[in-house]
Amino acid sequence: MAGDITTIARPYAEAVFARAQETGQVETWSEALATLSAIAADSDMAEQIGSPNVPRERLGDAILEIAGDGLSAEVRNLVSLLATNNRLSTLPEIARLFEEVVIRHQGVRQVQVLSAYDLSEAAQKDLAAMLEKRLEAQVEMRVETDPSLIGGVEVRAGDLVIDGSVRGKLHKLATELQF
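^ that's the sequence the OP posted. Answer follows.
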């Protein structure tokens, strides 16, 4: 499901970034999206957004009312568009992806590294150097331990996935052998 919502949210985030950059309002959009994300992620609001019994336009109006008068007309139009297209649930993901695009535009790539075992500082520095060369950007790594990988590492940088884990190799082998 997470992949589906990312696929839906990415075009919105990229379009909003393009517009924010065009108008010189990147920081304003960032703040507005953070506010809208927090509102949409609230458990009560998320329940209402997920309910087929609540009119979409009413939900959009409720989010805008909670956000207050500080939102620009363009931000309000985005909320209306998302409400009309039944996409209000994507607001937190749009905000997250928008921030990723901002960071990537600044020449920094956020990379998630899953490792079966704790990586030493030296191993992390070596991995970061290799990723910077491969991605041609400065790398900001977040390293987590996941014993289910059995061995090796899995690297995620946006849409790029490098799966060097034993679990990934076993899955690939099972697929090839049609298990």
